Amino acid sequence: MVIDDIIQFILEPDSTNNLFLFVKSVFLILNLFLIIFTVYAFFKASWINKLFFWDMKEYLSYKHYSLGGIEKLWAEIKEKLEGGQESEAKLAVIEADNLLNKTLKGMGYVGATLDDKLDKLSDGVLENIDEIKEGRKVCSDIVHDPSYRLDSKEAEKVLNVIEKTLINLQAL
Fold first, then answer.
1. What is the pLDDT of residue 3?
2. For residue range 80-139, what is the model confidence (pLDDT) as tens digits?
3. Residue 93: helix, strand or coil by DSSP?
4. Are 36 and 77 part of one and the same domain?
5. Using an 8 Å Cβ cutoff, are 124 and 130 in contact?
6. pLDDT band at 35 (very low <50, low <70, confident <90, very high)
7. Does 37 share its domain with 119?
8. Are 96 and 162 in contact (CB under 8 A)?
9. pLDDT at res. 126
10. What is the count of structural domains for the chain?
11. What is the C-alpha separation between 60 and 129, in angstroms, rounded?
């Protein structure tokens, strides 16, 4: 009967049968293709990247995944302050303020502006929120008043507060 022939073909294939060799070759090629596709999809899928690789990078570096490269940006900001020019100091304060905002956003703190994010933070998260808000006032004055005078000591004070905050957040 036909069913007996099919069972016989599956359980005890005749190695001289060309049909069996063809079917075996097709399934072997299909298997290799699916294995290669699975490996490719594993490394290209963003959700796998988020689930596995981000966690692994955070675990090994002790830093949040989105905080990569902050040390380099911070060094560039500090160099601007060392130039001694008032315009460079103003730019350094504005960039440091933006860096703090991006860091808090990258860590998952929500808010439209940095002030909103700081209002939602408690003293347990950041010890120096009042100092940060004073630095924010200086930055706001720089942005909104082009004639605002900023001396190097005040700019250095603001940058030190932001640096201390970034260290407390373990971003630096």
1. 84
2. 888 778 888 899 999 999 999 888 887 888 888 888 888 887 767 788 888 888 888 988
3. helix
4. no
5. no
6. very high
7. no
8. yes
9. 80
10. 2
11. 29
Residue 74, token pair as written in the block: 């911070």
Instruction: Identify the residue whose tokens are 């703190």.
Output: 109
The shares of helix, strand and coil residues in the chain, as percent rounded to the nearest 5, are 75, 0, 25
The pTM of this model reads 0.63
pLDDT higher than threshold 80 for residue 33? yes
Question: For 42-51, which contacts have Cβ atoms below 8 Å and span 24 or more sequence positions?
Answer: none
Kindly state whether residues 88 and 123 are assigned to the same domain. yes
To the nearest 10 degrees (0 to 180), the angle between helices 70-82 and 86-106 is 160
CB neighbour list of residue 50: distance below 8 Å, 6 or more residues apart? none
- Domain of 161 in residue numbering reads as 67-168
Q: Which two tokens stand for residue 103?
A: 């860091």
Other C-beta atoms lying within 10 Å of the C-beta of residue 171: 23
93 with 154, same domain: the answer is: yes
